[in-house]
Task: structure prediction
Amino acid sequence: MNPISNAVNVFNKPLIVCGTNPMTGVYRDGCCNTGSNDRGTHTVCAVVTNSFLQYSKSKGNDLTMDYPPTGFKGLLEGDKWCLCVSRWIEAYEANVAPPVILEATHIKTLDYISLEELMKYRYVNMQDNDWTEINNKLVKTFRFNNYDDVVLFANKVMQVAISQNHHPEIAIHYGFVKVSITDYENGAVSEKCHRFTISIDQI
Result:
């Protein structure tokens, strides 16, 4: 039974579910709740990455392994999981911290790390996979699991821009890159813009 019916997140708002497939939470209710019997303080709702999973394994906690007694099947990249706050901070200090769903992260986490730092790792779930025309620009957000992939992708976008002599606006964040393109000479989206988007989608 969930011991905390009025749990709140780091924004002091009602705590939302972190993940149910696999079922997470120290109380296996899908939420990153905590209580007196939660010795690990499993309060951080993370979207695990391969780099984090390998790091956790190196520290003696292999989250990719099945554990039949509890029905645990092992985590894969992209799974949502309630992590011990101490493990997340260790990963943060080692530059392999996974992104965090702040709305599902318990406020107790702020006893250990500031909201300002957590915000740098905020998970952004982009459902729209298509380019959208907004204010005479084609816009698309590309989501990644770590900052290294963000930088690699952004560099490739810039290479395409140079080769096509067509220069986008690129907003780089931890976990995603937002690309906007228009034909500045015409002040509107042109065929040149569509050729550019096709090249970016092929990266």
Observations:
- The first helix runs from residue 50 to 58.
- The mean pLDDT is 88.
- The chain has two domains: 1-123, 132-201.
